[in-house]
Amino acid sequence: MAVQRPSFATALTHLGEQGASLPMLMAESRHKKPENVRRYFKPSPEAIAEFTSLLATGGSMR
User: Fold this and answer.
1) Which GO terms describe its molecular function (predicted)?
2) Rounded to the nearest 10 degrees, what angle do helices 22-29 and 6-17 cross at?
3) 8 A C-beta contact, residue 37 and residue 12
4) Tell me: the pLDDT tens digits for 3-53?
5) Dihedrals φ, ψ of 13, to 5°?
6) For residues 62 and 21, what is the distance between their CA atoms, to the nearest angstrom?
7) d(CA 61, CA 51)
8) Cβ(41)–Cβ(16) under 8 Å?
9) What pLDDT score does 33 carry?
10) Which one of 6, 33, 43, 60 is most buried, by most CB atoms within 10 A?
11) Residue 16 class from Cβ within 10 Å (0-12 exposed, 13-18 middle, 19+ buried)?
């Protein structure tokens, strides 16, 4: 059974919210498969709202 590491998962979430790409998150976590990183990456409601707003206005994230 795998042991969850909440502090590491939180660090990955913060990196994702700051705009880190999936390949960068994979490199940081040393996972080889994207699906293994996705289980840790849980963007906050605020990050989702900001992203949705950018999509609606056609804005750029960077």
Assistant:
1) DNA binding
2) 150
3) yes
4) 555 677 788 888 887 878 889 888 988 999 998 888 777 777 887 888 899
5) -60, -45
6) 12
7) 8
8) yes
9) 92
10) 43
11) buried
pLDDT of residue 9: 73
Q: Which two tokens stand for residue 52?
A: 């949705």
Q: Where are the domains of the chain?
A: 6-57
- Phi first, then psi: what are they for 51, rounded to 5°? -65, -45
The pLDDT score that the predictor gives to residue 60 is 59
Residue whose entry in the numeric block shows the structure tokens 């989702």 = 48
Locate 37 and state its tokens: 């990183």
Enclosing H/E stretch for 50:
helix 45-57
User: Which residue bears the tokens 């998150």?
Assistant: 25
pTM over 0.85: no
